[in-house]
Each structure stands twice: as C-alpha cells, then as structure tokens.
C-alpha cells in the first residue's frame, strides 16, 4: 500500500532528523484508462511493453532525467541523486522544508525553483526504489496555453527567474553561483 510504504520509508530514513527530499519517480500514460500497476515489477513490465513512459521524456526529459530511471529499475535501497538544471521531481518532504516560491504561480518554474532551494539548503535528494506515480492525460491547463502563446508571459517568467537567482545569491552567497552558471550555459 503506497501510504504505508511512504510512512515506512520516512521512518527508516529517519526523515524527521535529517534534511532529505524523497523523490517519487514519475511515469505517464497516453491512455485515458489504465489499470494501475500493483507493484514495481508490474510497472516495469508495462514500461517495457510501451503502455507507460518515464514522465515527459518526449517533451521535457531534463525535468526528470536526474532521477536516473535506469538505476531505479534495479534499485532496492534509496539512492542519492545530484541537482541538475531544470530538475523538477515530485518529492515527499518534512513540513518545515522551504515553501514553494509564490512568484511562480500558474505554469512554469514552481517545482524547479523549489528543488533548487532545497539543494541550496543542502537537502539530500533521495530516490525511493519502490515508489512511483503515474500521470494521466488531461486537457492542457489554461496557464500552459498562456505560456505557449504569450511572449509577454514568457518574458515575465524570465524576469521572475532572474529575481529568484538574485535572492538565492543573497541568501546562500557563493554556493548559489552554480545555479546561475548552469542556467546561463543552457
């Protein structure tokens, strides 16, 4: 049962005593109806048959690639991954972790900025070996449509990203330089 597994993982990893973000690997289906896999083995079989895919691999692979799905396939214990630009995994964290930056409402950069902040605060990014979630298809959100169609929206988002980087630099000093350097090299 998923919630039992998560509670068990939280206890085993002593999450209340350490700064860690538990990554739940994300997958997706293009089918509107799906029999949800009951186990990791069943999920891997569906992945191999092509009825599931790693999340957004065909449109935005950078968002979840650092999860290292190849390693996850055979992992039996949680493993640590490093922050990379545009990483936006789904995570389980303690309530006292940094909050989402409220500048990033709508589409774009809410999860990316959150993971960046967690990394800046030296949270361990730990992938859970037996957890997974599946994104189901749905109509595009109003906000993603605005992002795609409006240069003004994209310009505002870029300005907010630059402000966010400046704030990180003020809060974390030289340690935050890696985020700006990574951003500029993209």
Automatic annotation (TrEMBL):
Subcellular localization: Membrane
GO biological process, one term: protein O-linked glycosylation via mannose
Membrane topology, as annotated: Single-pass type II membrane protein
A single GO cellular-component term on record: membrane
Entry annotated with the keyword Translocase: no
Pfam families recorded: Glyco_transf_49 (PF13896)
Top-rank lineage group of the source organism: Eukaryota
A single MF term (Gene Ontology): metal ion binding
Keywords: Glycoprotein, Glycosyltransferase, Membrane, Metal-binding, Signal-anchor, Transferase, Transmembrane, Transmembrane helix
Listed name of the protein: LARG2 glucuronyltransferase
Species, as recorded: Loxia curvirostra
Gene that encodes it: Large2
């Amino acid at each position: 049962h998923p919630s039992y597994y998560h509670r068990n993982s939280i206890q085993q990893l002593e999450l209340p005593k350490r700064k860690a973000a538990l990554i739940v690997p994300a997958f997706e289906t293009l089918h509107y109806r799906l029999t949800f896999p009951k186990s990791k083995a069943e999920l891997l079989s569906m992945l191999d048959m092509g009825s599931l895919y790693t999340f957004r691999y065909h449109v935005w692979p950078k968002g979840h690639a650092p999860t290292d799905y190849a390693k996850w396939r055979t992992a039996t214990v949680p493993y640590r991954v490093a922050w990379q630009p545009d990483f936006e995994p789904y995570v389980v964290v303690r309530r006292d972790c940094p909050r989402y930056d409220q500048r990033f409402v709508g589409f774009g950069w809410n999860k990316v900025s959150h993971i960046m902040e967690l990394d800046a605060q030296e949270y361990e990014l730990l992938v859970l070996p037996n957890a997974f979630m599946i994104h189901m298809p749905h109509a595009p959100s109003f906000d993603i449509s605005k992002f795609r169609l409006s240069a003004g929206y994209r310009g505002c988002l870029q300005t907010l990203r630059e402000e966010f980087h400046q704030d990180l630099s003020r809060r974390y000093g030289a340690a935050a330089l890696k985020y700006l350097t990574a951003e500029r090299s993209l």
